[in-house]
Amino acid sequence: MDLAWFKDLGQLSKTGNFSQAAQIRNISQPAFSRRIKALETWVGTKLVDRTRHPVKLTPAGEQMLEASKQAFERIEFEKKQIIEAQSLPDKYIVTFGAQHSIGWRFFPAWLQAFEDVYGAIISTLRADDLANCIDAMHKHEIDFVIAYESAYSRNRGEGLAREAIRIGTDFLIPVCKPNLDGTPLYAFSSSKGSKVPWLRFGESAPITKHINPLIESAGLQEKLSVAYENSMSGALRIRAREGTGVAWLPYSLIAPDLEAGLLVRTGNEEWKIDLDVMLLRDKSHTNTVTRRIWAFLATRQQIPLI
Amino acid sequence: MDLAWFKDLGQLSKTGNFSQAAQIRNISQPAFSRRIKALETWVGTKLVDRTRHPVKLTPAGEQMLEASKQAFERIEFEKKQIIEAQSLPDKYIVTFGAQHSIGWRFFPAWLQAFEDVYGAIISTLRADDLANCIDAMHKHEIDFVIAYESAYSRNRGEGLAREAIRIGTDFLIPVCKPNLDGTPLYAFSSSKGSKVPWLRFGESAPITKHINPLIESAGLQEKLSVAYENSMSGALRIRAREGTGVAWLPYSLIAPDLEAGLLVRTGNEEWKIDLDVMLLRDKSHTNTVTRRIWAFLATRQQIPLI
DNA sequence: CTAGCATTATGCAAAAAATGCATAAGATAT
DNA sequence: ATATCTTATGCATTTTTTGCATAATGCTAG
Questions:
Q1: Which DSSP symbol is given to A270?
Q2: Pairing verdict, β B122-127 and A122-127
Q3: Could you tell me the residue range of the domain that residue A32 belongs to?
Q4: Which nucleotide lies closest to A15 by the C1' atom and the CA atom?
Q5: A74 touching B, CB under 8 A?
Q6: Between the N and C ends of chain B, which has fewer C-beta atoms within 10 Å?
Q7: Do B232 and A81 lie within an 8 Å CB cutoff?
Q8: Which residues, 6+ apart, have CB-to-CB distance to A69 below 8 Å?
Q9: Do A12 and A133 share a domain, yes or no?
């Protein structure tokens, strides 16, 4: 069965004349005749009354024509819907995955900045472990993962179809409560035997992977004693402000506290850990919307955050 | 466009394998590949995700397949009617009018069930807007109109010679994709600030008239954010199965998905919208055939659908 | 990471189908 | 009845589709 057959029938119904209908349909009259015949054979009945001029559709012909119009309308409608959905991708929900720490602070600000220059998108955020996020990405449950990277720990996939671009930077610095004169409550220089209390991220916290290498390479184990442990940066921040100890915290998180004098930087200038905020995607799972976003971000390198 | 293309697509969807599907369709694998490609070119989109084995239809592919099934069912139905009418000449042709959504889904099944108990009738279906259908009925162009009714929206005429009997029931329930443990992906209970993505019927869709009153009376606007909008229930169903959000869909449409665990009910038990499928007639326009049908249906109240 | 297996895509010649031309057959009107 | 218009048919040609062989690609197990 061929759509063309029904288009022919429709034209024939309009013109009432094989030759003219054939001309309009851009085929020869014999070919046109044969197509109508093919349709009649397929349906199993005469659809055209040729005994009269101009020829007229039989009741059966009228019914089939009507039905075919409805049927192909249905298909055409769906076709249009699909094409529209593709050209108006704004309806697609882009799913981001991120560790709690990023999702909590970086993501909202970044999304705001991104939408300001790119335009609004419909998005949701799934906050979870980094490992879970990446897993979900490879299961195609989420489109992008936002993760920290440092010189010590890269998230690049091992042969997996994973790509990354940097969408922001941050750094971890050791901070603590200031004395009244603004000097750090815990200055490493003054430590002979006594160790400095350390507010540490839990072993399970992803950020630990970035901090531990520094602690080891700088031999800081000798100078620190764990005073508190929590995997949420917010909790460490509160303890640091209270003066419980020293914590390596993301600058983006504590910038307000530094300005307000609630926290000060301590320790050595070199004990700073540069972090890149990376957007990861699974190359094998893209669509118009996510490709556009990716291309946009890849060409801009970085969007300044407010 | 060729019917064979869609049959191929349907087979491919079933087997998930080009070679096997080709074999079943009695054609070589290269030819099969090219036919699928031809269909994709015609629609203008990739319809099959070949990156995975077994291959799967893309959402667009699913949508097109669904539409094609409905469309060709319509044509086959008409074909059958015509052949039957030929063997029983001079019979009155009963004309039904229905909205597209009913015409595509409910009507064929209902007519089948009706004919099983009543005996074969010769009929045609005119699919159109509800308003147009009713208009046509009062113009005596069609004998019966089939329409949805809910507590929120009755089609009873205002002083017009219009009667109605219920010939079926259905209900709309909110559904979404299940988690691995079978719980709803989007459970309203867990939402404090975050809104649940809503797959909504377009404003123009007739079914919206039944859903909107519930949304308003239950204050659901606060809990829902529109994630996708389409006037075809099939499109919403696909999105729901993908996990894009929550949709209110007719039970008759999604019963198979619920059984297969592709969708689960979510939200409150009370957020269910009962629909009656009503047969309407114009009292001033009857004849022997239509009066008999009416009397038959009126005394039976309801014919169970398969 | 690679070899081996399975699946899909492509080049090309052969087969099938549709088309156009010329013309026959049929219908209409004067 | 015949001139004229319209549709159907035979046949060579063109276009399309198909199958075969094979290349490219994807998946899996060692």
A1: T
A2: unpaired
A3: 4-86
A4: D6
A5: yes
A6: C
A7: yes
A8: A6, A10
A9: no
Closest-CA distance, B64 to chain A, in angstroms, reads 6
Nearest to A279 by CA among A84, A102, A104: A102
Structural domain ending residue among the three candidates B86, B112, B135: B86
Task: Please state the domain count of chain A.
Answer: 2
Q: Can you tell me the distance from the alpha carbon of B191 to that of B185, in angstroms, rounded to the nearest whole number?
A: 12
A261: left (phi over 0), alpha (psi -120 to 50) or beta: left
Structure confidence by residue, pLDDT tens digits, B85-103 = 777 766 788 899 988 777 7
* Strand D bases with any atom < 7 A from protein Cβ: 6-10, 17-21, 26-28
Which among A126, A125, A101, A105 has a CA at the least distance from the CA of A205? Answer: A101
Residue A44 Cα distances to A32, A74, B86, B183, angstroms: 18, 24, 10, 51
Q: Taking a C-beta distance cutoff of 8 angstroms, is the pair B79, B66 a contact?
A: no
Same domain as A105, residue A57? no
Please indicate whether, in this complex, the C-beta atoms of A81 and B230 are within 8 angstroms of each other: yes
Tens digits of residue pLDDT in B147-198: 888 877 776 656 667 888 888 888 899 999 888 788 888 888 754 556 788 8
Shared domain check, B200 and B136? yes
> Helix, strand, or coil here: A40?
helix
